[in-house]
Design goal:
single chain, 5-stranded antiparallel sheet, elongated
């Protein structure tokens, strides 16, 4: 039994010479398949370039955030407020009101803490270095690198899937066209034999 890959390989070879058994739709399908493979191959360096560009920008963002944010010790004013999910399970990360000193002033905010944290516990929170206001932790170097690599892989996968989808659509249309041509040829053949 001939596989689709074997059929396309044979058809691509026959593109170089005239073969009466190879239909125009076969040649067109082989060209579409070759184009799909070429697009997938071309997308590899594109995805690597995009990933490398994002790698440097994410590392710059990480360095900037680490320079602009500092960690301070805060004291919880109340127990952690645990949110429950739809199935009655509590989340591990929750929030609680906290207080910390910033120069001569005192800052207050609702901060993310472990769900088991109690009032009076000391926790480390990230604040803006210029104002002392509560903020999210800075982007780590490893997270920045992982994001860049993941985006490059996602870009290539999405683009390759789109190319494969377009080839599948072309294949489906060509199959319909071949089926109509076969039907016409069989009807013409049967019509010519019945007339004798």
């Amino acid at each position: 039994m001939t596989t689709r890959a074997g059929y396309l390989r044979r058809t691509r070879r026959s593109l170089r010479r005239r073969d009466p058994l190879v239909r125009r739709t076969d040649k067109l399908e082989a060209r579409c398949f070759t184009l799909m493979i070429a697009v997938m191959a071309i997308l590899i360096p594109v995805a690597v370039w995009v990933s490398a560009t994002m790698w440097s920008s994410q590392l710059e963002l990480s360095e900037k955030q680490n320079a602009e944010r500092v960690s301070v010790t805060a004291v919880l004013d109340a127990d952690a407020l645990s949110d429950s999910s739809g199935w009655g399970e509590t989340v591990k990360i929750s929030s609680a009101p906290a207080t910390w000193g910033w120069g001569d002033e005192t800052r207050h905010a609702l901060v993310q803490v472990d769900s088991l944290a109690t009032a009076g516990s000391e926790v480390q929170v990230w604040v803006e270095a210029s104002t002392g206001e509560y903020t999210q932790p800075p982007l780590t170097t490893s997270a920045a690198k992982f994001t860049a690599v993941l985006f490059g892989v996602w870009l290539w996968t999405f683009s390759a899937a789109a190319a494969a989808g377009l080839f599948a659509l072309a294949h489906w249309r060509l199959e319909m066209r071949r089926s109509r041509e076969w039907s016409r040829d069989i009807e013409a053949f049967l019509g010519s034999t019945s007339s004798h």
